[in-house]
Amino acid sequence: MSGNKGNKKEKNREENGREEKLDMEKQRDERIEQTGQLTLERHGEEDKAIHMISIIGEIEGHDNLSSSSKTTKYEHILPQLAAIEDSSKIEGLLILLNTMGGDVEAGLAIAEMIASLSKPTVSLVLGGSHSIGVPIAVSADYSFIVPSGTMVIHPVRMNGTVIGAPQTFDYFKQIQDRITGFVCSHCKLSRTRMEEMMMETGILTKDLGTILVGEEAVNAGLINEVGGIREAVAKLHELSGIELGTRED
User: Fold this and answer.
1) Tag placement on the chain: N or C end, fewer CB within 10 Å?
2) pLDDT grade for 29, boundaries at 50, 70 and 90
3) Lowest mean pLDDT: which of 28-32, 191-195, 221-225?
4) What pLDDT was estimated at residue 219?
5) Which of left, alpha, beta for 230 (phi over 0: left; psi -120 to 50: alpha)?
6) How far apart are CA 40 and CA 31, in angstroms?
7) DSSP assignment string, 35-102
8) How many Cα atoms are found within 13 Å in the side-chain-facing hemisphere of 108?
9) CA distance linking residue 198 with residue 145, whole number of Å
10) Which are the catalytic amino acids?
11) Gap between the Cα atoms of 72 and 126, Å rounded
C-alpha cells in the first residue's frame, strides 16, 4: 500500500511539474505577443540571463495609432528598461530593430534610457532602422546591422497644422539639433557629415535624406559591425562576462 501511495505522489508531482511548465510557456508566448520581449536564459542558467526587446513598426508616442498599424509603445519599453537596470538576474540587453521611425520624443526617450543603462547593451538592425530609429540603434554599447539592413537619415518632419512663422522653424532646428547631437555622441559619424546626409537631394525620390545599406552604415561610422543574431548574442555575452562554454546535444 505504501508503495502505491508513493507512486501516486510521484505521478502527482510530475503532473504538477508539467502543468507549471505549460503555464510558464503560455505566459512566455503571451509576453512575446503583447510586448515583443523575452528573457533569454542560457542552458537554464537562471542567475545569468539577457533580456531581448524588439522595436518594430512605428514608434508610438503620445497619440494612439490605428489598430491596423504595427507599433512599439514607449510606455511599455520605458518601465521594462527601468526593471532591467534594477534586476540582479539580467546581465545584458539585446535590442532588435525593424522600425520605420515614429514619434521623435518617444524615440529619443527610449534611446536615452538605453544609453544610460549600466548593463551591457547590443543593438541589431534587421530590415531597417529609419528616422528616429537611428538614435535607438546607436544608443547601445555596440551595434550590428545585417548585410541587407537599411538606415534612413532625413530632416525632421511634422504632421498636422504648422504655423508659418520663424519660431516654428527655430523649433524644428532645435529638435533636429537634439537628434543630431545624440547620434553623433554615440557613434563615429561626425555632426557635419550627418547634416550633409540629412540634406542630400540625389538619393530619395521627391525627398531629402540618405539611405545606408549594411556595410555602408558601418563605413559611415554609424554602426559598429555587419553581423546577425549569432554575432550580436556572442558580443553581448562577451560584454556581460557570461561564459559561453560548450554543450553536448
Assistant:
1) C
2) very low
3) 28-32
4) 94
5) alpha
6) 13
7) H-EEEEEGGG-TTSEEEEEEEEEEEE-SSPPPTTS-EEEHHHHHHHHHHHHH-SSEEEEEEEEEEEEE
8) 13
9) 20
10) 131, 154
11) 15
For the record, the C-alpha cell of 182 comes out as: 545624440
Please tell me the distance from the alpha carbon of residue 203 to that of residue 82, in angstroms, as a whole number. Answer: 39
Q: Which pTM does this prediction carry?
A: 0.77
User: Which of 3-17, 53-67, 217-231, 234-248 has the lowest average pLDDT?
Assistant: 3-17
Query: How many angstroms separate the CA atoms of 76 and 36, rounded?
Result: 10
Sequence-ordered alpha helix ranges (H) in the chain: 2-35, 74-86, 104-116, 133-138, 166-185, 191-198, 215-219, 229-240
In the chain, the amino acid numbered 205 is T
Sequence-separated (6 or more) residues with CB below 8 Å from residue 11: none
Q: What is the pLDDT of residue 202?
A: 76
What integer best gives the mean pLDDT of the chain?
80
